[in-house]
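Incident log entry.

Two folding requests arrived from the same account within the same minute. Monitoring flagged them as a possible duplicate submission, but the sequences differ. Recording both here for audit purposes.

Request one:
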Amino acid sequence: MKTNPALSALRHHVTGAIARGEAQAITEVPAPTSAAHTPGPWALAIGPHRIEVHTTPALAYAFSLSDEANARLIAAAPELLAALEALCEDKYLADPINADRMRAARAAIAKARG
Protein backbone atom coordinates (compact mmCIF):
# COMPACT_ATOMS: atom_id res chain seq x y z
CA MET A 1 0.00 0.00 0.00
CA LYS A 2 1.46 3.36 -1.03
CA THR A 3 1.65 6.14 1.51
CA ASN A 4 0.73 9.67 0.58
CA PRO A 5 3.85 11.88 1.09
CA ALA A 6 1.75 14.95 1.87
CA LEU A 7 -0.26 13.05 4.49
CA SER A 8 2.95 11.66 6.01
CA ALA A 9 4.44 15.15 6.21
CA LEU A 10 1.27 16.50 7.82
CA ARG A 11 1.26 13.69 10.41
CA HIS A 12 4.93 14.40 11.18
CA HIS A 13 4.22 18.13 11.57
CA VAL A 14 1.18 17.59 13.81
CA THR A 15 2.96 14.98 15.94
CA GLY A 16 5.87 17.40 16.46
CA ALA A 17 3.52 20.26 17.34
CA ILE A 18 1.79 18.08 19.94
CA ALA A 19 5.13 16.97 21.39
CA ARG A 20 6.28 20.62 21.66
CA GLY A 21 3.03 21.62 23.36
CA GLU A 22 1.99 23.83 20.45
CA ALA A 23 -1.11 21.76 19.70
CA GLN A 24 -3.43 19.43 21.56
CA ALA A 25 -4.46 15.99 20.39
CA ILE A 26 -8.17 15.42 19.95
CA THR A 27 -9.05 12.27 21.84
CA GLU A 28 -12.83 12.38 21.87
CA VAL A 29 -15.54 13.84 19.68
CA PRO A 30 -18.98 13.71 21.29
CA ALA A 31 -21.62 11.90 19.28
CA PRO A 32 -25.13 13.30 18.94
CA THR A 33 -27.45 11.95 21.61
CA SER A 34 -30.82 11.97 19.84
CA ALA A 35 -31.80 9.58 17.07
CA ALA A 36 -33.66 10.93 14.06
CA HIS A 37 -34.20 7.46 12.58
CA THR A 38 -36.83 4.87 13.44
CA PRO A 39 -35.37 3.01 16.41
CA GLY A 40 -34.59 -0.68 16.02
CA PRO A 41 -34.73 -3.51 16.09
CA TRP A 42 -35.90 -3.86 12.50
CA ALA A 43 -37.19 -7.16 11.16
CA LEU A 44 -36.38 -8.87 7.88
CA ALA A 45 -39.08 -10.90 6.12
CA ILE A 46 -38.18 -12.92 3.03
CA GLY A 47 -41.21 -14.02 1.03
CA PRO A 48 -41.63 -15.89 -2.24
CA HIS A 49 -41.64 -12.72 -4.37
CA ARG A 50 -40.05 -9.98 -2.30
CA ILE A 51 -38.07 -9.07 0.81
CA GLU A 52 -39.40 -6.66 3.40
CA VAL A 53 -37.62 -4.71 6.11
CA HIS A 54 -40.15 -3.84 8.83
CA THR A 55 -39.13 -0.77 10.81
CA THR A 56 -42.42 -0.44 12.68
CA PRO A 57 -45.56 -2.61 12.65
CA ALA A 58 -47.13 -0.22 10.13
CA LEU A 59 -44.08 0.53 7.97
CA ALA A 60 -42.12 -1.81 5.71
CA TYR A 61 -39.72 -1.31 2.83
CA ALA A 62 -39.96 -3.82 -0.02
CA PHE A 63 -37.01 -5.11 -2.05
CA SER A 64 -36.77 -7.48 -4.98
CA LEU A 65 -35.28 -10.90 -4.27
CA SER A 66 -32.08 -9.85 -6.04
CA ASP A 67 -31.56 -7.17 -3.35
CA GLU A 68 -31.39 -9.58 -0.40
CA ALA A 69 -27.90 -8.42 0.65
CA ASN A 70 -29.04 -4.77 0.72
CA ALA A 71 -32.18 -5.67 2.67
CA ARG A 72 -30.14 -7.60 5.25
CA LEU A 73 -27.74 -4.67 5.67
CA ILE A 74 -30.59 -2.19 6.07
CA ALA A 75 -32.35 -4.45 8.59
CA ALA A 76 -29.15 -4.66 10.65
CA ALA A 77 -28.49 -0.89 10.53
CA PRO A 78 -29.84 0.02 14.00
CA GLU A 79 -27.83 -2.73 15.69
CA LEU A 80 -24.69 -1.83 13.71
CA LEU A 81 -25.03 1.83 14.71
CA ALA A 82 -25.55 0.94 18.39
CA ALA A 83 -22.53 -1.38 18.38
CA LEU A 84 -20.32 1.27 16.76
CA GLU A 85 -21.44 3.89 19.26
CA ALA A 86 -20.66 1.50 22.13
CA LEU A 87 -17.17 0.88 20.73
CA CYS A 88 -16.54 4.62 20.49
CA GLU A 89 -17.36 4.99 24.18
CA ASP A 90 -14.76 2.35 25.16
CA LYS A 91 -11.94 4.23 26.93
CA TYR A 92 -9.46 1.44 26.13
CA LEU A 93 -9.84 2.11 22.40
CA ALA A 94 -9.25 5.87 22.75
CA ASP A 95 -5.46 5.75 22.37
CA PRO A 96 -3.23 7.15 19.60
CA ILE A 97 -2.86 3.74 17.95
CA ASN A 98 -6.60 3.66 17.24
CA ALA A 99 -7.02 7.38 16.46
CA ASP A 100 -7.61 6.89 12.72
CA ARG A 101 -10.04 4.05 13.33
CA MET A 102 -11.93 6.07 15.93
CA ARG A 103 -12.16 9.06 13.56
CA ALA A 104 -13.53 6.75 10.85
CA ALA A 105 -16.03 5.23 13.28
CA ARG A 106 -17.20 8.66 14.46
CA ALA A 107 -17.49 9.83 10.85
CA ALA A 108 -19.65 6.81 10.04
CA ILE A 109 -21.85 7.54 13.06
CA ALA A 110 -22.21 11.18 12.01
CA LYS A 111 -23.07 10.09 8.46
CA ALA A 112 -25.73 7.69 9.78
CA ARG A 113 -27.21 10.31 12.09
CA GLY A 114 -27.19 13.05 9.42
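Request two (distinct sequence, not a duplicate):
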Amino acid sequence: MAPSHPAVATLPHAIRSPLNPNSLWTALKHLAGWFNRLSAYYLTDAGVASLTEVTQDHCDTYLQATAHAADEKGRRLSPATLTMSVRAPQMLALYAEILDDCYRPGFSPWAGSSPDVVVGYERPYGNRVPPVPDELLRPLLANTLYLVSTIAQPLAAEAAAARTADRREAASRQHLPVQQLNRLREEIRFRTATGIPAPRLSASNLTRRRVRGWDQHDPLLHLAWHPVVVETTGAMGHRRDLERLRPEREAWVANCGIEQPRGRNATTVPHQDSGDPVEWTLPMSRQHLDTTIYALTSACYYLTATLSGMRAGELLELTAGCRRREDLPGGSARFRLVTRRTKGEPFGGVQDAWVVIAEVDRAIGIAEQLTGAAPGQRLFATGSNNSRSRFLALREWINSDAGRRLGLDPIPDGAINPRGRCAAPSRSRSPNARTD
Protein backbone atom coordinates (compact mmCIF):
# COMPACT_ATOMS: atom_id res chain seq x y z
CA MET A 1 0.00 0.00 0.00
CA ALA A 2 2.86 2.39 0.79
CA PRO A 3 5.86 1.75 -1.51
CA SER A 4 7.32 5.17 -0.64
CA HIS A 5 7.36 4.46 3.10
CA PRO A 6 10.95 4.86 4.40
CA ALA A 7 11.06 1.25 5.58
CA VAL A 8 9.97 -0.01 2.15
CA ALA A 9 11.54 2.46 -0.28
CA THR A 10 15.06 1.13 0.37
CA LEU A 11 14.16 -2.52 -0.23
CA PRO A 12 15.69 -3.52 -3.58
CA HIS A 13 12.89 -5.87 -4.68
CA ALA A 14 9.77 -4.31 -3.11
CA ILE A 15 6.75 -3.56 -5.26
CA ARG A 16 6.98 0.03 -6.48
CA SER A 17 3.33 0.69 -7.33
CA PRO A 18 0.72 0.79 -4.56
CA LEU A 19 -1.89 -1.95 -4.65
CA ASN A 20 -5.49 -0.83 -4.79
CA PRO A 21 -7.80 -2.26 -2.10
CA ASN A 22 -9.16 -5.01 -4.36
CA SER A 23 -5.67 -6.28 -5.26
CA LEU A 24 -4.55 -5.91 -1.67
CA TRP A 25 -7.48 -7.97 -0.42
CA THR A 26 -6.68 -10.70 -2.97
CA ALA A 27 -3.05 -10.77 -1.86
CA LEU A 28 -4.06 -10.91 1.81
CA LYS A 29 -6.50 -13.75 1.14
CA HIS A 30 -3.82 -15.83 -0.57
CA LEU A 31 -1.25 -15.09 2.13
CA ALA A 32 -3.76 -16.37 4.69
CA GLY A 33 -4.25 -19.45 2.54
CA TRP A 34 -0.48 -19.97 2.38
CA PHE A 35 -0.18 -19.99 6.18
CA ASN A 36 -3.42 -21.80 6.98
CA ARG A 37 -3.25 -24.45 4.31
CA LEU A 38 0.37 -25.21 5.08
CA SER A 39 -0.49 -25.64 8.75
CA ALA A 40 -3.44 -27.88 7.98
CA TYR A 41 -1.77 -30.07 5.36
CA TYR A 42 1.89 -30.30 6.18
CA LEU A 43 3.83 -27.83 8.31
CA THR A 44 2.22 -28.51 11.68
CA ASP A 45 2.60 -32.25 11.29
CA ALA A 46 6.20 -31.74 10.21
CA GLY A 47 6.96 -29.59 13.24
CA VAL A 48 7.64 -26.45 11.19
CA ALA A 49 7.08 -23.33 13.32
CA SER A 50 8.91 -20.63 11.34
CA LEU A 51 9.28 -19.50 7.74
CA THR A 52 13.01 -20.12 8.06
CA GLU A 53 12.22 -23.84 8.01
CA VAL A 54 10.16 -23.73 4.79
CA THR A 55 11.61 -25.73 1.90
CA GLN A 56 10.65 -26.08 -1.73
CA ASP A 57 8.94 -29.38 -0.92
CA HIS A 58 6.58 -27.48 1.39
CA CYS A 59 5.82 -25.02 -1.42
CA ASP A 60 5.07 -27.80 -3.91
CA THR A 61 2.83 -29.57 -1.39
CA TYR A 62 0.93 -26.34 -0.77
CA LEU A 63 0.42 -25.70 -4.47
CA GLN A 64 -0.86 -29.22 -5.10
CA ALA A 65 -3.27 -28.95 -2.18
CA THR A 66 -4.51 -25.57 -3.37
CA ALA A 67 -5.02 -26.78 -6.93
CA HIS A 68 -7.51 -29.42 -5.78
CA ALA A 69 -8.95 -28.03 -2.55
CA ALA A 70 -11.65 -25.85 -4.11
CA ASP A 71 -13.09 -28.56 -6.34
CA GLU A 72 -15.14 -31.40 -4.86
CA LYS A 73 -14.70 -33.52 -7.99
CA GLY A 74 -10.91 -33.50 -7.81
CA ARG A 75 -10.36 -31.35 -10.90
CA ARG A 76 -7.42 -28.94 -10.81
CA LEU A 77 -8.01 -25.22 -10.76
CA SER A 78 -6.97 -23.45 -13.94
CA PRO A 79 -3.39 -22.15 -14.23
CA ALA A 80 -4.71 -18.56 -14.37
CA THR A 81 -6.41 -19.08 -11.01
CA LEU A 82 -3.29 -20.58 -9.44
CA THR A 83 -0.88 -17.78 -10.34
CA MET A 84 -1.75 -15.75 -7.22
CA SER A 85 -1.25 -18.84 -5.06
CA VAL A 86 2.38 -18.77 -6.20
CA ARG A 87 2.82 -15.00 -6.17
CA ALA A 88 1.60 -14.55 -2.58
CA PRO A 89 4.28 -16.80 -0.95
CA GLN A 90 6.92 -15.22 -3.18
CA MET A 91 5.94 -11.71 -2.08
CA LEU A 92 7.18 -12.45 1.44
CA ALA A 93 10.72 -12.83 0.08
CA LEU A 94 10.58 -9.28 -1.30
CA TYR A 95 10.16 -7.82 2.19
CA ALA A 96 12.42 -10.17 4.17
CA GLU A 97 14.53 -7.32 5.57
CA ILE A 98 11.63 -5.81 7.51
CA LEU A 99 9.80 -8.99 8.56
CA ASP A 100 10.24 -10.55 11.99
CA ASP A 101 9.88 -14.03 10.47
CA CYS A 102 11.18 -14.70 6.98
CA TYR A 103 12.60 -17.39 4.71
CA ARG A 104 16.18 -18.48 5.23
CA PRO A 105 18.79 -16.37 3.38
CA GLY A 106 18.92 -17.11 -0.32
CA PHE A 107 15.62 -19.01 -0.40
CA SER A 108 12.60 -17.90 -2.39
CA PRO A 109 9.62 -20.15 -3.20
CA TRP A 110 10.08 -21.78 -6.58
CA ALA A 111 13.47 -20.07 -6.83
CA GLY A 112 11.77 -16.78 -7.69
CA SER A 113 10.48 -18.13 -11.02
CA SER A 114 7.56 -16.31 -12.59
CA PRO A 115 4.19 -17.58 -11.29
CA ASP A 116 3.14 -18.09 -14.91
CA VAL A 117 6.08 -20.44 -15.46
CA VAL A 118 5.46 -22.33 -12.21
CA VAL A 119 1.80 -23.13 -12.99
CA GLY A 120 2.21 -23.38 -16.77
CA TYR A 121 0.04 -20.41 -17.61
CA GLU A 122 0.42 -18.83 -21.07
CA ARG A 123 -0.98 -15.33 -21.05
CA PRO A 124 -3.05 -14.42 -24.11
CA TYR A 125 -2.18 -11.26 -25.95
CA GLY A 126 -4.54 -8.84 -27.61
CA ASN A 127 -8.22 -8.45 -26.83
CA ARG A 128 -9.48 -11.62 -25.17
CA VAL A 129 -13.11 -10.58 -25.56
CA PRO A 130 -14.30 -11.25 -29.13
CA PRO A 131 -15.95 -8.44 -31.09
CA VAL A 132 -19.72 -8.12 -30.78
CA PRO A 133 -21.34 -9.99 -33.70
CA ASP A 134 -22.93 -7.70 -36.25
CA GLU A 135 -26.32 -9.34 -35.81
CA LEU A 136 -26.27 -8.19 -32.17
CA LEU A 137 -24.61 -4.80 -32.54
CA ARG A 138 -26.78 -3.51 -35.40
CA PRO A 139 -30.16 -3.84 -33.66
CA LEU A 140 -28.67 -2.65 -30.36
CA LEU A 141 -27.27 0.52 -31.90
CA ALA A 142 -30.34 1.19 -34.07
CA ASN A 143 -32.74 0.69 -31.17
CA THR A 144 -30.78 2.79 -28.68
CA LEU A 145 -30.47 5.68 -31.15
CA TYR A 146 -34.22 5.52 -31.78
CA LEU A 147 -35.15 5.33 -28.10
CA VAL A 148 -32.91 8.22 -27.06
CA SER A 149 -34.22 10.44 -29.86
CA THR A 150 -37.95 9.63 -29.51
CA ILE A 151 -39.37 8.34 -26.24
CA ALA A 152 -36.62 9.43 -23.86
CA GLN A 153 -37.92 12.97 -23.39
CA PRO A 154 -41.55 12.07 -22.57
CA LEU A 155 -40.28 9.24 -20.36
CA ALA A 156 -38.00 11.69 -18.52
CA ALA A 157 -41.01 13.96 -17.89
CA GLU A 158 -42.99 11.01 -16.54
CA ALA A 159 -40.05 9.99 -14.34
CA ALA A 160 -39.79 13.52 -12.93
CA ALA A 161 -43.53 13.53 -12.16
CA ALA A 162 -43.23 10.18 -10.39
CA ARG A 163 -40.33 11.43 -8.25
CA THR A 164 -42.36 14.52 -7.32
CA ALA A 165 -45.29 12.30 -6.32
CA ASP A 166 -42.96 10.15 -4.22
CA ARG A 167 -41.65 13.20 -2.36
CA ARG A 168 -45.17 14.49 -1.74
CA GLU A 169 -46.31 11.13 -0.41
CA ALA A 170 -43.24 10.82 1.82
CA ALA A 171 -43.92 14.26 3.29
CA SER A 172 -47.70 13.84 3.59
CA ARG A 173 -49.60 13.67 6.84
CA GLN A 174 -50.85 10.33 8.08
CA HIS A 175 -54.50 11.26 8.52
CA LEU A 176 -57.01 13.01 6.31
CA PRO A 177 -58.44 16.03 8.16
CA VAL A 178 -62.24 16.08 8.21
CA GLN A 179 -62.33 19.50 6.59
CA GLN A 180 -60.55 18.05 3.55
CA LEU A 181 -63.30 15.54 2.82
CA ASN A 182 -65.44 18.03 0.91
CA ARG A 183 -62.45 19.11 -1.17
CA LEU A 184 -61.68 15.49 -2.03
CA ARG A 185 -65.33 14.80 -2.78
CA GLU A 186 -65.39 17.66 -5.27
CA GLU A 187 -62.20 16.44 -6.92
CA ILE A 188 -63.68 12.97 -7.41
CA ARG A 189 -66.83 14.42 -8.92
CA PHE A 190 -64.74 16.57 -11.25
CA ARG A 191 -62.73 13.56 -12.47
CA THR A 192 -65.93 11.61 -12.98
CA ALA A 193 -67.49 14.41 -15.02
CA THR A 194 -64.40 14.85 -17.20
CA GLY A 195 -63.94 11.11 -17.81
CA ILE A 196 -60.58 10.69 -16.08
CA PRO A 197 -60.11 6.99 -15.21
CA ALA A 198 -59.36 6.07 -11.61
CA PRO A 199 -55.79 4.89 -10.86
CA ARG A 200 -55.17 1.15 -10.65
CA LEU A 201 -53.63 -0.34 -7.53
CA SER A 202 -50.20 -1.95 -7.79
CA ALA A 203 -49.99 -5.74 -7.76
CA SER A 204 -48.20 -5.82 -4.39
CA ASN A 205 -50.80 -3.60 -2.70
CA LEU A 206 -53.60 -5.64 -4.28
CA THR A 207 -52.14 -8.76 -2.68
CA ARG A 208 -52.02 -7.01 0.68
CA ARG A 209 -55.67 -5.97 0.38
CA ARG A 210 -56.71 -9.54 -0.33
CA VAL A 211 -54.72 -10.79 2.65
CA ARG A 212 -56.50 -8.25 4.84
CA GLY A 213 -59.84 -9.68 3.82
CA TRP A 214 -61.20 -7.32 1.16
CA ASP A 215 -64.25 -8.61 -0.65
CA GLN A 216 -63.15 -10.02 -4.00
CA HIS A 217 -66.22 -8.46 -5.63
CA ASP A 218 -65.72 -5.00 -4.12
CA PRO A 219 -65.79 -2.49 -7.03
CA LEU A 220 -63.05 -0.52 -5.24
CA LEU A 221 -60.72 -3.50 -4.73
CA HIS A 222 -58.41 -2.45 -7.60
CA LEU A 223 -58.64 1.29 -6.95
CA ALA A 224 -55.51 3.08 -5.73
CA TRP A 225 -56.49 5.42 -2.90
CA HIS A 226 -53.44 7.21 -1.54
CA PRO A 227 -52.21 8.85 -4.81
CA VAL A 228 -55.51 10.69 -5.30
CA VAL A 229 -55.68 11.85 -1.69
CA VAL A 230 -52.04 13.00 -1.61
CA GLU A 231 -52.38 14.85 -4.92
CA THR A 232 -55.57 16.59 -3.81
CA THR A 233 -55.05 17.29 -0.12
CA GLY A 234 -51.44 16.50 0.79
CA ALA A 235 -52.63 13.89 3.30
CA MET A 236 -52.45 10.11 3.09
CA GLY A 237 -55.93 8.86 3.93
CA HIS A 238 -57.03 5.50 5.28
CA ARG A 239 -59.70 2.96 4.45
CA ARG A 240 -62.19 4.67 6.73
CA ASP A 241 -61.84 7.77 4.55
CA LEU A 242 -62.44 5.58 1.51
CA GLU A 243 -65.62 4.27 3.09
CA ARG A 244 -66.87 7.81 3.77
CA LEU A 245 -66.52 8.61 0.08
CA ARG A 246 -67.60 5.19 -1.23
CA PRO A 247 -70.64 6.45 -3.20
CA GLU A 248 -68.53 9.00 -5.09
CA ARG A 249 -65.75 6.49 -5.65
CA GLU A 250 -68.04 3.77 -6.94
CA ALA A 251 -69.67 6.23 -9.33
CA TRP A 252 -66.22 7.26 -10.56
CA VAL A 253 -65.16 3.66 -11.21
CA ALA A 254 -68.48 2.76 -12.83
CA ASN A 255 -68.41 5.71 -15.23
CA CYS A 256 -64.69 6.02 -16.05
CA GLY A 257 -63.15 2.66 -15.22
CA ILE A 258 -59.74 1.96 -13.66
CA GLU A 259 -56.50 2.47 -15.55
CA GLN A 260 -52.78 2.31 -14.79
CA PRO A 261 -51.70 5.70 -13.42
CA ARG A 262 -48.50 6.41 -15.39
CA GLY A 263 -48.10 7.34 -19.06
CA ARG A 264 -51.70 8.34 -19.69
CA ASN A 265 -52.50 10.48 -22.74
CA ALA A 266 -49.08 9.68 -24.17
CA THR A 267 -47.78 11.78 -27.02
CA THR A 268 -47.10 10.11 -30.35
CA VAL A 269 -43.73 9.27 -31.86
CA PRO A 270 -42.89 7.84 -35.31
CA HIS A 271 -42.95 4.05 -35.49
CA GLN A 272 -39.37 2.93 -36.10
CA ASP A 273 -40.27 0.70 -39.03
CA SER A 274 -43.21 2.39 -40.80
CA GLY A 275 -42.91 5.94 -39.50
CA ASP A 276 -46.61 6.01 -38.61
CA PRO A 277 -47.50 7.91 -35.43
CA VAL A 278 -47.86 5.68 -32.36
CA GLU A 279 -48.26 6.52 -28.69
CA TRP A 280 -44.89 6.23 -27.03
CA THR A 281 -46.41 4.11 -24.24
CA LEU A 282 -49.62 2.61 -23.01
CA PRO A 283 -50.74 3.47 -19.45
CA MET A 284 -48.39 1.68 -17.09
CA SER A 285 -47.89 0.90 -13.42
CA ARG A 286 -45.17 2.48 -11.34
CA GLN A 287 -43.23 -0.78 -11.46
CA HIS A 288 -43.39 -0.81 -15.26
CA LEU A 289 -42.30 2.83 -15.27
CA ASP A 290 -39.24 2.00 -13.17
CA THR A 291 -38.43 -0.91 -15.49
CA THR A 292 -38.69 1.38 -18.52
CA ILE A 293 -36.51 4.03 -16.90
CA TYR A 294 -33.81 1.43 -16.18
CA ALA A 295 -34.02 0.10 -19.74
CA LEU A 296 -33.70 3.58 -21.26
CA THR A 297 -30.85 4.50 -18.93
CA SER A 298 -29.16 1.30 -20.07
CA ALA A 299 -29.75 2.36 -23.68
CA CYS A 300 -27.85 5.58 -22.87
CA TYR A 301 -25.09 3.49 -21.29
CA TYR A 302 -24.61 1.22 -24.31
CA LEU A 303 -24.98 4.04 -26.82
CA THR A 304 -22.22 5.93 -25.01
CA ALA A 305 -20.04 2.81 -24.82
CA THR A 306 -20.43 2.06 -28.52
CA LEU A 307 -19.97 5.56 -29.91
CA SER A 308 -17.22 6.76 -27.57
CA GLY A 309 -15.01 3.72 -26.91
CA MET A 310 -14.91 4.45 -23.17
CA ARG A 311 -13.94 1.64 -20.84
CA ALA A 312 -16.51 0.25 -18.43
CA GLY A 313 -14.71 1.83 -15.48
CA GLU A 314 -14.73 5.21 -17.21
CA LEU A 315 -18.44 4.89 -17.96
CA LEU A 316 -19.14 4.22 -14.29
CA GLU A 317 -17.30 7.42 -13.34
CA LEU A 318 -19.64 9.61 -15.41
CA THR A 319 -21.65 11.92 -13.17
CA ALA A 320 -24.52 14.35 -13.53
CA GLY A 321 -23.04 17.59 -14.80
CA CYS A 322 -20.12 15.91 -16.60
CA ARG A 323 -21.04 17.34 -20.01
CA ARG A 324 -19.05 20.21 -21.51
CA ARG A 325 -19.96 22.06 -24.71
CA GLU A 326 -17.64 24.36 -26.66
CA ASP A 327 -19.22 26.41 -29.45
CA LEU A 328 -16.94 26.71 -32.48
CA PRO A 329 -16.88 29.19 -35.38
CA GLY A 330 -19.37 28.38 -38.11
CA GLY A 331 -22.07 27.19 -35.76
CA SER A 332 -20.52 23.79 -34.91
CA ALA A 333 -19.74 22.58 -31.41
CA ARG A 334 -17.37 20.27 -29.60
CA PHE A 335 -18.71 18.03 -26.84
CA ARG A 336 -16.72 16.58 -23.96
CA LEU A 337 -17.51 14.24 -21.09
CA VAL A 338 -15.50 14.67 -17.91
CA THR A 339 -14.73 11.36 -16.22
CA ARG A 340 -11.81 9.66 -14.49
CA ARG A 341 -9.09 7.55 -16.06
CA THR A 342 -8.08 4.66 -13.81
CA LYS A 343 -6.06 2.24 -15.95
CA GLY A 344 -2.35 2.75 -15.33
CA GLU A 345 -3.01 5.53 -12.84
CA PRO A 346 -2.72 5.72 -9.03
CA PHE A 347 -5.68 4.35 -7.12
CA GLY A 348 -8.65 6.64 -7.59
CA GLY A 349 -7.54 7.64 -11.08
CA VAL A 350 -7.13 11.11 -12.54
CA GLN A 351 -9.67 13.42 -14.10
CA ASP A 352 -9.97 13.00 -17.85
CA ALA A 353 -12.21 14.42 -20.57
CA TRP A 354 -13.39 12.61 -23.69
CA VAL A 355 -14.30 14.37 -26.90
CA VAL A 356 -17.56 12.76 -28.10
CA ILE A 357 -20.13 13.25 -30.84
CA ALA A 358 -23.48 14.97 -30.33
CA GLU A 359 -25.43 11.70 -30.00
CA VAL A 360 -23.34 10.70 -26.98
CA ASP A 361 -23.75 14.13 -25.39
CA ARG A 362 -27.52 13.82 -25.85
CA ALA A 363 -27.55 10.31 -24.36
CA ILE A 364 -25.76 11.48 -21.21
CA GLY A 365 -28.17 14.41 -20.90
CA ILE A 366 -31.09 11.99 -21.14
CA ALA A 367 -29.51 9.74 -18.48
CA GLU A 368 -29.29 12.75 -16.16
CA GLN A 369 -33.00 13.46 -16.64
CA LEU A 370 -34.10 9.84 -16.31
CA THR A 371 -32.20 9.19 -13.09
CA GLY A 372 -32.79 12.62 -11.54
CA ALA A 373 -29.19 12.45 -10.31
CA ALA A 374 -27.88 15.42 -8.36
CA PRO A 375 -24.76 17.21 -9.69
CA GLY A 376 -21.73 15.02 -9.04
CA GLN A 377 -23.79 11.86 -8.52
CA ARG A 378 -22.85 8.90 -10.71
CA LEU A 379 -25.23 8.01 -13.52
CA PHE A 380 -24.53 4.34 -14.17
CA ALA A 381 -22.88 2.92 -11.02
CA THR A 382 -25.61 0.68 -9.63
CA GLY A 383 -24.78 -2.73 -8.27
CA SER A 384 -22.29 -5.35 -9.38
CA ASN A 385 -21.84 -6.77 -12.86
CA ASN A 386 -23.42 -3.56 -14.06
CA SER A 387 -22.98 -3.95 -17.83
CA ARG A 388 -24.47 -7.48 -17.98
CA SER A 389 -27.55 -6.61 -15.91
CA ARG A 390 -28.11 -3.49 -18.00
CA PHE A 391 -27.87 -5.38 -21.28
CA LEU A 392 -30.26 -8.11 -20.14
CA ALA A 393 -32.79 -5.53 -18.92
CA LEU A 394 -32.51 -3.53 -22.15
CA ARG A 395 -32.86 -6.60 -24.37
CA GLU A 396 -35.86 -7.86 -22.39
CA TRP A 397 -37.61 -4.49 -22.73
CA ILE A 398 -36.84 -4.16 -26.46
CA ASN A 399 -38.11 -7.69 -27.12
CA SER A 400 -41.26 -7.14 -25.02
CA ASP A 401 -44.68 -5.88 -26.13
CA ALA A 402 -43.52 -2.33 -25.40
CA GLY A 403 -40.67 -2.63 -27.91
CA ARG A 404 -42.81 -4.36 -30.52
CA ARG A 405 -45.38 -1.53 -30.33
CA LEU A 406 -42.65 0.90 -31.34
CA GLY A 407 -41.33 -1.33 -34.14
CA LEU A 408 -37.98 -2.06 -32.51
CA ASP A 409 -35.78 -4.75 -34.02
CA PRO A 410 -35.59 -7.76 -31.67
CA ILE A 411 -32.13 -8.43 -30.23
CA PRO A 412 -31.22 -12.13 -30.52
CA ASP A 413 -29.61 -14.16 -27.77
CA GLY A 414 -25.95 -13.48 -27.16
CA ALA A 415 -23.66 -11.56 -24.85
CA ILE A 416 -22.69 -7.91 -25.20
CA ASN A 417 -20.43 -5.95 -22.91
CA PRO A 418 -18.37 -2.75 -23.37
CA ARG A 419 -15.13 -4.73 -23.80
CA GLY A 420 -16.45 -6.53 -26.87
CA ARG A 421 -18.08 -3.76 -28.89
CA CYS A 422 -16.78 -3.64 -32.45
CA ALA A 423 -17.85 -0.29 -33.85
CA ALA A 424 -16.03 1.80 -31.25
CA PRO A 425 -13.45 4.45 -32.21
CA SER A 426 -9.79 3.70 -31.68
CA ARG A 427 -8.35 4.51 -28.27
CA SER A 428 -6.04 7.22 -29.59
CA ARG A 429 -4.38 9.41 -26.98
CA SER A 430 -3.98 12.19 -29.57
CA PRO A 431 -4.71 15.71 -28.25
CA ASN A 432 -7.37 15.94 -30.95
CA ALA A 433 -9.16 12.94 -29.49
CA ARG A 434 -9.14 13.69 -25.80
CA THR A 435 -7.87 16.27 -23.34
CA ASP A 436 -6.80 16.09 -19.72
